[in-house]
Amino acid sequence: MANRLGMNGEDHRIETRDQNESGSSPEKTIGPKSYSYGELARVTGHFSLNNLIGRGGFGHVFKAFLDGEIRAIKRLDFPDVQSEGGLEREIMVVKSISHKNLVELVGYCIDGANRLLILNYFPNGSLRSKLHGKPKIIHLDIKPDNIFLDEDFEPKITDFGLAQFFTDGATHISKSSVMGTHVYEDPLTIKLEKYSDKSDIYSFGVTLLELITGRKPIDNGIDIVTWANYLIKKALEGRYTNFIDFNLQSFDH
């Protein structure tokens, strides 16, 4: 059988026949396995950021447990006619050669507009990750609702739905549609539409204000930052007001 992958997504894999003791010739499939998009979405948690391990010019790579093995699943983000041809070429090239220093192509998916590759997972990551470290991530929605406490009261940050990656050398990202929680967002960031790690620092500062004062983020129509700035201004004028939460002052741990 011809060793090729059809443009319509049909799986044309190499088939050989081995004679068994009874003389019959069962088919044996050689080469990468075809998966449906639904299968790969399920094992990656619907391509959750929690499973994201890399990104490139054409897509993202996710870690997943598939068919009893840990795999790396590469998804093309913007498939088109050109990238479809590129994917087929990549499949044909990788499946036609074998070398100890080449990543093995385990499987693929051509399902509607979805294009994915399934590769062996390498726990030590890429050489680039060792040379230049991990990419910077900004959360963009730091607030008490997104910080959970374990049995030892160790804080755990969750909800990365608005999170963004920095590209190499970038100092900020420009976005006009980030919908975080208003009271925790830096007003200057919103005005300039430029987000960076400083955006998370501001949000964390508001969270600390809540922790220290015991005050709600908005109380009697006044947000906690405006309230704190007023007290700080008074303190600089010599009129100090203790705004530390009484429960925190008496806390002994």
From TrEMBL:
Its main location: membrane. SMART domains: S_TKc. This is non-specific serine/threonine protein kinase. InterPro entries: Kinase-like_dom_sf, PERK1-13-like, Prot_kinase_dom, Protein_kinase_ATP_BS, Ser/Thr_kinase_AS. Residues 47-253 form the Protein kinase domain. SUPFAM superfamilies: Protein kinase-like (PK-like) (SSF56112). It is found in: Cell membrane. It catalyses: L-seryl-[protein] + ATP = O-phospho-L-seryl-[protein] + ADP + H(+); L-threonyl-[protein] + ATP = O-phospho-L-threonyl-[protein] + ADP + H(+). One of its GO terms (cellular component) is plasma membrane. Keywords: ATP-binding, Cell membrane, Kinase, Membrane, Nucleotide-binding, Serine/threonine-protein kinase, Transferase, Transmembrane, Transmembrane helix. GO terms for molecular function: ATP binding; protein serine/threonine kinase activity.
